[in-house]
Design brief:
Distance between the termini: 13 Å
Strand order of the largest sheet: 1-2
Mean pLDDT: 92
Radius of gyration: 12 Å
Low-confidence stretches: none
Strand content: 5-15%
Helix content: 40-55%
Structural class: mainly alpha
Number of helices: 3
Number of domains: 1
């Protein structure tokens, strides 16, 4: 099952950034979501929102 929410470690792996930057990404995306009226969780961010915000495409697992 695919994660619906990402934490700082997930962002680090996805974007190849350090921990500090991953928390900045979470804050930035959560601020955008909150401004749009969504409920956000501190330290976690919607995976869909991250992919949309950065224009990323999810890679399919070949299992």
């Amino acid at each position: 099952m695919e994660k619906q929410f990402l934490n700082a470690k997930d962002i680090q792996e996805l974007m190849q950034v350090k921990q500090t930057k991953s928390y900045q990404v979470i804050r930035k995306v959560n601020e955008k979501l909150e401004a749009e009226g969504f409920l956000v969780l501190r330290g976690r961010v919607s995976a869909r929102a991250v992919y949309e915000y950065f224009g990323l495409e999810k890679q399919e697992d070949n299992k």
